[in-house]
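Handout, page 2. Input:
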Amino acid sequence: MGCPDWKLLRNHPRTLLSNTKFPALCGLIAVVLSGAISGLAWGSFGSVGAALAHFRGERLSIHPRLVDVGAAPAGDTREVRIELTNWTEQPINLIGGTSDCACTVLGDLPVTIPAGETVTVAVNLRFSGRPGMFTRKAAFLIDDQGFRAISFSITGRTLSESENLDVAGGAP
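Output:
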C-alpha cells in the first residue's frame, strides 16, 4: 500500500491548486449541462428515452437491441424478454418475426402495442451449431403505416463437450 506524495502540495500549494481549477471547472460545467439537457428531455418529451427516440426518428424502440443469452451446451434453449415501446399516438401491430431452427419470436404474436406504451415479448433461442461465440440477427414484422421489419441481435456462446463436462463437474 502506498501513500500519496504530499511534497508538491506542501512546497507549492498555489501551483497545484491553480493547475486543478480548469479541470474542476470543466467537470462542473459538464455536470450542469447534462442535468439541464436531462431536465429539458423530461420536460419536453416526458422521459430521456422518449427524447432519444424522437431525435433518432424511432416510432417503435426495442430494448435491449443486443441480447446476451450467456453460454450453454448445444441443444439447450433460453427464453429472453424484449421490450417494445410505441412512441406514437396510434397503436402499432406486431404481427410476425423471425422463426428458424435456432430463434423464434412468434410465441406471443400477434400483439398490439397501444400508443405510448411498452409491451414485453418472449424470444426463444436454441443453442446450435459449432462451439464458440455467435451473434444472430432477429426481427419483428410490424404494421405501422405499412409493413416493415425492425431488427435486434442475439449473442451468446455454445459450449463444447469438454466445457459441458467442466460445467457439470466431471464425467457424465
